Amino acid sequence: MDSEQFRAAAHQMVDYVIDYLDNIRNRRVLPTVEPGYLRKLIPEEAPEQGETWQSIFQDIERVIMPGVTHWHSPNFHAYYPTGNSWPAMLADILSDAIGCVGFSWIASPACTELEVVMMDWLGKLIGLPPVFLASTGGKGGGVIQGTASEAMLVGLLAARSKTLKRLKAEHPEKDEKILASRLIAYSSDQSHSAAERAGLLAGVHVRVLPTDDQLHLRADALQSAIKEDTANGKIPFFVVATLGTTPACSFDDIDELGPVCNDHLLWLHVDAAYAGSAFVCEEYHHYMKGVERADSFNFNPHKWLLVNFDCSAMWFKDADDIVSAFNVDPIFLKHDHQNSAPDFRHWQIPLGRRFRSLKLWFVMRSYGAQGLRDYIRKQIHLAEQFHQMLAADDRFEFPVPPSMGLVCFRLKGENSLSERLLKRINEAGQVYMIPAKLHETYIIRFAVCSRYTELSDVQASCEEIRRHANDIVSA
Amino acid sequence: MDSEQFRAAAHQMVDYVIDYLDNIRNRRVLPTVEPGYLRKLIPEEAPEQGETWQSIFQDIERVIMPGVTHWHSPNFHAYYPTGNSWPAMLADILSDAIGCVGFSWIASPACTELEVVMMDWLGKLIGLPPVFLASTGGKGGGVIQGTASEAMLVGLLAARSKTLKRLKAEHPEKDEKILASRLIAYSSDQSHSAAERAGLLAGVHVRVLPTDDQLHLRADALQSAIKEDTANGKIPFFVVATLGTTPACSFDDIDELGPVCNDHLLWLHVDAAYAGSAFVCEEYHHYMKGVERADSFNFNPHKWLLVNFDCSAMWFKDADDIVSAFNVDPIFLKHDHQNSAPDFRHWQIPLGRRFRSLKLWFVMRSYGAQGLRDYIRKQIHLAEQFHQMLAADDRFEFPVPPSMGLVCFRLKGENSLSERLLKRINEAGQVYMIPAKLHETYIIRFAVCSRYTELSDVQASCEEIRRHANDIVSA
């Protein structure tokens, strides 16, 4: 394919994706394929000779689309949103063409520098305290990670390194590996499973603490765990607090947890993967109260802020904590400007990295702060409207109030009723939702996800839910 | 931005990136900016109101391009290549539009299934033994990771988990964390620094073994390390062997190392990040002799196989090793098809993942096996031609023979002469190369990287190098 063939093919692809997204409402949100469907549709090996673009292009509808779960369908209400917008897609085309690998400043200065400044823009936009920003000239700063799960692991590993350094300084006679074996971290029963997984990956025990009846991790639960574990010879060192949990979008009170962490020298990582985007709106800043006590803060613009995956924003209060943790500096990566600009390879798990800040730049400029606020408020309002509609049917109950763009509901009665309801709805494939458990209560999650979702879609989803409920509980 | 505005903007962007790449030869490969250049060029915060596309678009040349290191310039000879091709860029546009997050089969079946089959295509294309392929119906299979450094970490963590399970079964009375503190892994002084870093991240000691005078890690060096460490109470469990090292593209003899690893129950991870792409050509298959003894194998199509970053191909001989290592399965990720198709979230560090197999599909089909072989052979030939040209100037010497697309050279005499030469060349910014150390010998690496590099570019680079050498050593 030469550049003129690419020009024609790219224009065709652009037209195709516009058509796909603008008409996504017409596609069944969940596919009907069975596992193994795709292998039967294509050859067993790569072709010996190159194929024409048209033969590749026509296979998108034949091979790919039958097996796509349409995350941007207005009827997709599962998990949480994944971002998607025209300006972000434009930025990715540019990022692909520049195709630099920004592991150090010299490997592409623009890639590093735009990221530093965009993380400041974004931090200011969500009202993050200046101590986290690079522009204040302190030790704070932000970096784009791939996912919130990586950010959690990076936070945990930085905390482990920092804690072991302190312990080694206090007890030079002790074996570092033995000290490491005594470390213990905390998450809650509402935290994302990525917290436990980070512990498995790092070889550190992550203790899951119970939340209160409002699904919040409380200071007294944390304090008593610290006390108990310390008495048993453990060394508490890391806490994940969540602003907007996956099951019910509940919020831990970091203003209450922060002082406990600071007093006991525990690293506080704030995971606001989903809800962090809503902090572009001032009316939600109260959830961040006390965030200045955190050591690291993370949210995913690629979830709810119209930036295509992957773009997970993470800030450190003291970037030295991470840079000094895993810095291996071979000669082939050394350069003359190492002390005057960050080499982001030290801030993350992988070595290589794409030019992802272009997406943030294009999206923030194209929408403007006001446009992003309007977007968030509209989606939250849609969730509230859905809640009102479904609440009018008294077969349903809502164990927790709607939170952000998420409504958790269930049929009154046994868990099994709601389980059967969800199974029916997803099998019909017109609306896609997933379940969660709030302590022992099974709920169905309705998350407003797509930027194409309008009131009429939410009304139709509500009708679909009620129709299937008729087969289980009489109206 | 609505879809019609996007159509116009995307067509403009497509035309821009074609112009950028087709004329990249005219840009200085290294930028002249100083650290901090970018912050001065843009506002301190995001705009309140959205901006027009044209105001964003015109800032690409004003703000970004002055700070770009042009990895696809024909004069870029640093590090190793990073892939870039028209078909891969088309696939990324589609991937962005579908915008699914493929952490489980149900989250988008096509995303998982195309990846399974493409990893089979790719494995067959490079001559990987069937035991690594999913299509053989055994326990093998491939997955796309982000980077070779992540693949190395994943391999190490899977090995740690597998080893600890075995040790716990053998010694149920022993504390797992104490056992873990005795683990030791091996890499060589020519392995990528990512191996040591994986050890830092995992909290495991990675011992760097010396290579022989041909820069190969030898079985006797490995055996004596195992013997010594075992005698000291350590538990050897993991070895990184490299096919195509970063400093000099040297090849460890895995046919010799494999039996040692198998005999001592050490996990063998083969890192072929760069050179693995060359295995599309049968004449290089001898480097893989004995690979069936490895537990995991990795190479980066995003380096040398014309696939845009990120796309790091990794195969396991027994995928259960990784799936069982870090499987945390909360209710919101469970689905009905968990046993009939892989949930790739268990195979990697992050939870989320993009639809990256589209790039492999488009590239393999568009070039065909023959086109990919032609591409690799052409680049290797260019390196050979460069070597011949520079060898005609007897001020230069070549401590190791050219290998694949890499030529390592130096000025005869003290290291400092070559250090000064490289500094001058990179300051002039017409050609970009980086150094390495082969044991104590400083060398300059000339890697053929860009798909735009032609013989005339290589000739011009050679002249540029010789011209700067004139200022250091008389001709």
Automatic annotation (TrEMBL), chains A, B:
Keyword list, A-Z: Catecholamine biosynthesis, Decarboxylase, Lyase, Pyridoxal phosphate
Naming one, the record's GO cellular component terms include:
cytoplasm
One GO BP on record is: serotonin biosynthetic process
A Gene Ontology molecular function term for this protein is: aromatic-L-amino-acid decarboxylase activity
Q: Which cofactor does it need?
A: pyridoxal 5'-phosphate
- Tell me where on the tree of life, at the top rank, the source sits: Eukaryota
Entry keyword annotation includes Lyase: yes
Gene3D superfamilies found in the cross-reference section: Aspartate Aminotransferase, domain 1 (3.90.1150.10), dopa decarboxylase, N-terminal domain (1.20.1340.10), Type I PLP-dependent aspartate aminotransferase-like (Major domain) (3.40.640.10)
This entry's Enzyme Commission designation comes to 4.1.1.28
Q: What residues bear N6-(pyridoxal phosphate)lysine in this entry?
A: K303
Similarity field: Belongs to the group II decarboxylase family.
Q: Which PANTHER family match?
A: AROMATIC-L-AMINO-ACID DECARBOXYLASE, GROUP II PYRIDOXAL-5-PHOSPHATE DECARBOXYLASE
Q: Its quaternary structure? A: Homodimer.
Identify this protein by name: Aromatic-L-amino-acid decarboxylase
Species whose genome carries this gene: Daphnia sinensis
